[in-house]
Design a protein that fits this description.
The protein is α/β, with parallel strands linked by helices. The protein has two domains: 254 residues, 3-Layer(aba) Sandwich (Rossmann fold), CATH 3.40.50.2000; 151 residues, Rossmann fold. It is built from 15 helices and 15 strands. Helix 9 links the parallel strand 11 and strand 12. The chain is globular, with a radius of gyration of 22 Å. The two termini are 27 Å apart.
Length: 424
């Protein structure tokens, strides 16, 4: 079987890219032929260095590097992206059996969906966020610092000043979502949810599309080395972009209230304000190995108090695998993997509830017990790269088999009316 994996980057600068890369590697290691299509030039992760992985670079610009009008036009419909993708796929020595898309908002745009559908093979999209339905992509009111509850593209949605940048950016994103709906109208699409909560929320929001839902966990590659010793940790750790929607400010406030230092690994708009606070240490981005070396020796717990409906932050799963208790927002999809009161705490993303959880973990015995239980539970039900690849292979095989059966049936003289066959 030959699978095309389409993403905008070939380096793990975020969760979506990391999953795309891990998937490509896992599928190749399992015996599939993989073509990894990278839209934007840049660094290439060594994970793609495998005999069964072919890499293609489209050489497209990140739209945020373009001038205002050009960026807006490319974000709504990037015709050049569609042409380059079509040419790249057309030049493959063999047609793929399936295409799996992970990212499209930074340069590919809705223009690539008709290209993918035109291949005549199953198209799969992993939903790392809510961009398939929501204009700003995260179903979150940045103007109110709370999750959104509006129907995408409804009158209330159009009027809401929810964009993290400006009203002009909101207009562009609204136009992009409207264009996306037109591009996908009647085109069958298979979507992969990385958590149960995402499936529940997006189920209603994608009602206008011809969508089939699937559920597959993200892969987790546990860091090498011994288990963590959270009882000896001196700080509450946070790993990721330093933003309000991810709750970085909540960690600083709650840790101080609990009488514990806060350790931030990452960068973002809140960095300067966090550095100015007492009891806070910000060390910026670090290589993955360095991150987990720090967490093993310093983290009493990992905090992930997202205000938005985060789908599946990998750091939560990686912390559990390393034996570090996790305090996670009830709004996060990763909360499904945390056993409240056993491997960490699932809380409302507010200072008071977070502070209470952090204070409870000041007890050495409890921190140690939670960490050991977290590691044991992960090992009992590991989210390994091999199991992720196996789930994807099973999904692809089913889709390819169904598609082949439909083509054979149609070729046998079967006549279907448009209403019976579904939207054109």
């Amino acid at each position: 079987m030959h699978v095309v994996i389409l993403a905008e980057f070939a380096t793990a600068s975020g969760g979506a890219e990391k999953v795309a890369l891990e998937s490509a590697r896992g599928l190749a290691e399992s015996g599939l032929d993989v073509t990894y299509v990278q839209a934007i030039p840049g660094l290439v992760d060594p994970m793609l260095d495998h005999a069964r992985i072919r890499r293609i670079e489209l050489g497209l610009p990140d739209i945020w590097s373009l001038a205002g009008a050009r960026a807006a036009a490319a974000g709504i419909w990037h015709a050049a992206a569609a042409r380059r993708l079509a040419a790249a796929l057309g030049a493959l020595p063999a047609r793929p059996d399936c295409v799996h898309l992970h990212q499209w908002t930074r340069t590919l745009s809705p223009a690539v969906f008709p290209v993918l559908s035109g291949l005549g093979v199953p198209v799969v999209v992993t939903l790392h966020d809510y961009a398939l339905a929501c204009p700003n992509g995260v179903y979150y009111r940045f103007d109110r610092a709370e999750p959104c509850g509006l129907a995408p593209l409804s009158a209330a949605c159009l009027a809401a000043p929810c964009d993290p940048r400006s009203r002009l950016h909101k207009l562009v994103r609204v136009a992009r979502t409207g264009t996306l709906r037109q591009a996908l109208r009647g085109r069958p699409l298979h979507v992969v949810h990385v958590c149960d909560a995402s499936r529940r929320r997006l189920g209603d929001l994608l009602g206008g599309y011809t969508v089939t839902h699937h559920r597959i966990d993200n892969p987790v590659r546990p860091s090498e080395g011994p288990a963590a010793d959270p009882a000896r940790g001196d700080a509450i750790a946070y790993v990721g972009r330093l933003t309000r929607e991810k709750g970085a400010d909540l960690v600083a406030d709650a840790a101080r209230a609990a009488g514990l230092p806060a350790l931030f690994i990452g960068e973002g708009p809140l960095e300067a304000a966090l550095r100015a606070r007492p009891g806070v240490e910000v060390i910026g981005w670090q290589a993955p190995g360095a991150v987990w070396e720090l967490l093993r020796t310093r983290a009493r717990a990992l905090a992930a108090p997202s205000r938005w409906y985060e789908t599946g932050p990998l750091t939560v799963y990686e912390a559990l695998a390393a034996g570090i208790p996790v305090v996670v927002s009830e709004r996060s999809g990763a909360a499904e993997k945390v056993r409240d009161g056993q491997t960490g705490f699932v809380v409302v993303p507010e200072v008071g509830t977070l502070a209470a959880a952090f204070a409870a973990l000041r007890d050495d015995a409890r921190a140690g017990t939670f960490g050991a239980e977290a590691r044991a539970r992960f090992r009992a039900e590991p989210m390994t790269l091999a199991s992720h690849a196996a789930a994807l292979r099973s999904l692809y095989a089913g889709l390819v088999g169904t598609a082949a059966g439909a083509m054979h049936h149609a070729g046998s003289g079967s006549r279907l009316s448009r209403s019976e066959a579904g939207p054109a």
